[in-house]
Amino acid sequence: MGAAYFSYLLAVLLGTLALCFFFRIRIPVRRALTAVFPAALLFVAWDAWAVFRGHWTFNPDAVLGIFIGNQPLEEIAFFFVIPFFYITVWEIAKAKVK
């Protein structure tokens, strides 16, 4: 078991939170989840299907080993952490353009 994938996501999440703090951006979590959750569900399902079909796998040396179905926890978190980063960048850009 490894933590490479988790480490990358943690770095992105901590970086996103640092950006929020530095630029004094407050992301409405409920609105963000409303935007992200449906797409995340769709992509997690698609990802699970692709793994089931053997289109790809996850390197056990790069993930923590916590699986939900055939998906490592990090893969599911990816579909929430990365969109949260993009929403944050979008909010920063909107604030700076004003």
Key descriptive features of the protein:
about 100 residues, two-stranded antiparallel ribbon, single chain, about 70% helix, mainly alpha
General description of the model:
With 98 residues, the chain is mainly α. The chain has one domain (4-97). It contains 3 helices and 2 strands, in the order ααββα. The chain has helices at residues 4-22, 29-53, 73-97, and strands at 67-68, 71-72. The chain has a two-stranded antiparallel ribbon. β1 and β2 (71-72) form a beta hairpin. α1 runs parallel beside α3. The mean pLDDT is 92.
Number of strands: 2
Rg from Cα: 15 Å
What would the principal axes of the Cα set say about the shape? elongated
Low-confidence stretches: none
The ordered H/E elements are: HHEEH
Average pLDDT figure = 92
Strand content: under 5%
Strand order within the widest beta sheet: 1-2
Secondary structure class reads: mainly alpha
